[in-house]
Description:
Blueprint: E1 14-19, E2 40-41, E3 45-46, H1 48-57, E4 62-67, H2 72-81, E5 92-97, H3 111-116, H4 119-125, E6 129-134, E7 137-139, H5 143-153, E8 157-165, E9 173-177, E10 183-188, E11 202-213, H6 214-225, H7 234-245, E12 248-252, E13 268-270, H8 274-283, E14 311-313, E15 315-316, E16 319-320, E17 322-324, E18 327-328, E19 333-335, E20 338-340, E21 343-344, E22 349-350, E23 355-361, E24 366-367, E25 372-378, E26 383-384, E27 389-390, H9 394-400, E28 402-403, E29 409-411, H10 413-421
Parallel strand pairs: 1-4, 1-6, 4-5, 8-12, 14-19, 17-20, 18-21, 19-22, 20-23, 21-23, 22-24, 23-25, 24-26, 25-27, 25-29
Antiparallel strand pairs: 2-3, 6-11, 7-13, 8-11, 9-10, 9-11, 15-16, 28-29
Amino acid sequence: MADHRRAGPxxxxxxxxxxxxxxxxxxxxxxxxxxxxxxxxGGKSRIIDFALSNAINSGIRRIGVATQYKAHSLIRHLNRxxxxxxxxxxxxxxxxxxxxxxSEDQWYAGTADAVYQNIDIIEAYAPEYIVILAGDHVYKxxxxxxxxxxxxxxxxxxxxxxxxxxxxAVAFGVMHVDEKNQIxxxxxxxxDPPSIPGRPDTALASMGIYVFNTKFLAxxxxxxxxxPSSSRDFGHDIxxxxxxxxxxxxxxxxxxxxRSEAEYGSYWRDVGTVDAxxxxxxxxxxxxxxxxxxxxxxPIWTYADVTPPAKFVHDEDxxxxxxxxxxxxxxxxxxxxSLHRSLLFTGVRQNxxxxxxxAVVLPHCHIGRGARVTRAILDRxxxxxxxxxxxxxxxxxxxxxxxxAGGVCLVTQSMIDRLSQG
Length: 422
């Protein structure tokens, strides 16, 4: 095989294109007013910050973000937190809402169409390579390693893949590969997933990350746009076509996952359900969490409000401001309340005699005196009345709030308002 290696990082000639239009309906009320990539995560960040930070940390300085569903809070976050890239340094950051640029009656019809409708913008920057990313997963990954594999193999497309137990792959697009990781077939959500050669109990599931040569991708998108039977989707249309008619390789996440000294696994999460979202946040309270957000070598960049420090006050039995195994963000005041294995975003106020246990509390919530909240998610701006108890009576919780299959209560302000009206 010809030597495709080149001087300097490939990321210099690469654009990252983030698909961030997801509705995220399985997150229930958390996505009533915001797209899934804009949902808060980890005390300070939004979910999309992980894909964007991976791109920046990998050396990619041209980024486009395609938005669609309820995008205002996402666009506002991007404008505030990601406006540091400068055209004068051959950098760019474009927010690309669905704006009916191709047809007056057509929004983004699918993931491939979300790229196709902006192909002229992409081609104007003339990146040699393009990395297509999902904006709604939590992980740390060096895309430069995946780009290097793409160049070395001369692939038409390289697909990021997770190694998962074979029967868990029924919910993913699955790669059938040979011994060299060349993809011989791509199957969407198969009932009997193909295994990795030599590893009968393991399958390769698509992460929704694709590397293309930009010129090749443009050709494929134009071909697909002319096909009236296409659903305009990478997983359903573009990738199966390239696998059949071109050269496709799988790139395993384990070969490019970024770990600090404190991390011991290949952490990747789709936080697309209430239970998964709650668990991934609460996992951060572990003594040694699987995801290290304190890693200075691979920071998770975001927009952060300028805030005063967190404050803990009162020191009486039953009325002591204290936090155990918890993350507490700036501008929080714990005034005589206690929290255990909980995560508080910016600006939370917790009043005397209240208790939070395994709670994910989004920005600017107010916890009333004597309230008890267990195993719950409080949406932004929720005011918990004095003495209210959440998470101790499953039947009562289910009648008042959104209670997940895993027993997590999702609480919004409108649900609280209905309590007072009733």
